[in-house]
Amino acid sequence: MKKIIIVLSFITAFNLFASSVAMSEIPKSAINFADAYFPDYYLYRAVENSGSFTLIFKGGLKIYINSKGEWTTVSGGGDEINIEYLEKEVINSIKKEFPNEKVIYVKKQKNAYKIKFKNRTNITVDFEGNIKKGRRDY
């Protein structure tokens, strides 16, 4: 019971700081990114939290945007996502090393991308396409 109260308190606190915003409040660069690479998805809701945004699409896709209007994370909610916005070297490395895997999550870090596949394998790929590490979640 105590854990449930703590979790509910956390969720409530998060919702106090995150609020839905109108499309006009979302940075234009974020809208352009979503339109260019995810045109078949319907934007269901946009949430602002301390200057950053989360674009929530029907079907589970989420795009996280920083305060500069740049994407930081794309999550397919367990479904395959487009990766054409990554550098060609990164795309080529992923397709070469993991030809049959479906990417479901991409997080842009300082010097690399954290990539998750549908089979629960996680890798880190630098911007030049070098795969740094990989592991499988069980």
From TrEMBL:
Where would you find the membrane-spanning parts of this chain?
none
Signal peptide limits: 1-18
Q: Which InterPro entries does the UniProt record give?
A: PepSY-like
Answer yes or no on keyword Phosphoprotein: no
Pfam family name, one: PepSY_like
Keyword presence, Flavoprotein? no
Protein name, as recorded: Putative beta-lactamase-inhibitor-like PepSY-like domain-containing protein
The entry's keywords: Signal
Q: Which residues form the Putative beta-lactamase-inhibitor-like PepSY-like domain?
A: 53-132
